[in-house]
Amino acid sequence: MSVNTSTHDVANAALAAEGKKRIEWAERNMPVLAQIKERFEKEQPFAGVRIAACMHVTTETANLMRALKAGGAELALCASNPLSTQDDTAAALVHEFGINVFAHNSIDRDGYYRHINAALDIKPHLVFDDGCDLVNTLHTTRTELIDGIIGGCEETTTGVIRLSQMTKDGALKFPMIAVNDTDTKHMFDNRYGTGQSTMDAIFRSTNSLVAGKVVVVAGFGYCGKGVAERAKGMGADVIVTEIDPTKALDALMQGYRVMPMIDAAKLGDFFVTVTGNRDVLRDEHFAVMKDGAILSNAGHFDIEIDVAWLEQNAKQKNSKIRHQTDEYVMKDNRRILLLAEGRLVNLGAAEGHPASVMDMSFSDQALTAEWLLKAAKELSAGLHNVPSEIDKEVARLKLESMGATVDKLTAAQDLYLNSWEHGS
Length: 424
Fold this sequence. Notes:
The chain has 2 domains: 5-185 and 353-401, Rossmann fold; 194-348, NAD(P)-binding Rossmann-like Domain (Rossmann fold). Helices cover 44% and strands 17% of the residues. The chain has 17 helices and 16 strands. It has helices at 16-28, 31-43, 59-70, 87-95, 109-120, 133-140, 157-168, 183-206, 222-233, 245-253, 261-264, 283-286, 307-313, 345-348, 355-375, 388-401, 411-417, and strands spanning 9-10, 50-55, 74-79, 100-103, 126-129, 151-154, 175-178, 214-218, 237-241, 257-258, 270-273, 293-297, 316-322, 325-329, 335-339, 382-384. The termini are far apart. 53% of the residues are buried. The model is unreliable at 1-5 (pLDDT under 50).
């Protein structure tokens, strides 16, 4: 397929054939999205629509892009995290599937924002974001494009937090839909996807035994629950740290120890931050950690662990002593091991969520974008939820693809649930 080289920036075109194989492998495990793609191809709901997306450039995202393109969309994709970019996937999207991609693995900060701006140069009607950096750029340095935006979708918890604040401050200039908050996203992607892929990353990086070790999980939202469950299932003694008393109580009643991080820091062998906040692990915690403590972040941005402090205060840094593992030697000779530079570990040191989980999340994205084109005129600027009908439809299709079905209400049951006139 001939490609206009001015419309993309990928690391290595020679990787395209290998990337195509991996994209097609992921597609086999995304049957719901495949059904949606087939319908999109017939109905062309995105004909004439330009979409800019800032997302993890992985095989799963590639299949979402292919579904949107099949529906008639013109696309520009950039990376939401430099370490998660799969260079073979990026190359395949450009050279095998004709999609504009701007992404290199491990690109620096300037390059990261250059790619976001390149994606925005398409002058999009719809935007897809994963962390709110693209939307933030629109509202700060690319404001001339805002009038052309119909709306957009946000994929992750951190982005929803930022968009919620923008809405509260009256700063968000168009409707954004919190795809992250659908049940089929946060209950499955966040919990089962993050749980499995985070442990996978820790194993790939360290080849360490988890059984019998202390794993400290900072944050007990759906991502934290998933990490804690997987670690506990592998024989770890799990400690949870939280700022929310309800979530802390939930963790305690599920059998985990709960304590402040300053106390947990003395006990942990492994640390996983999943909070969406900054400086969750910082100097006071580093000071009391065991020799050989292993630190990782499964939140979105690389600010949950104060890496800058380690860089400035360690007497020695041994880079990449294993796959995506840096060793910081403290002044008292204790060693602290940091995975994936403190960035999103499950994508920086592994391959991210399994495709079968992302099948639901990206089906939510695709169907929400289709709905948004029709509904945007009725929506105010600000953050909105995905209609429950879309969420339920994705769940139904996923169940069907897994060979399961649900009961249906009888007429009498439906009447009972929808009437106040029938007593006990």
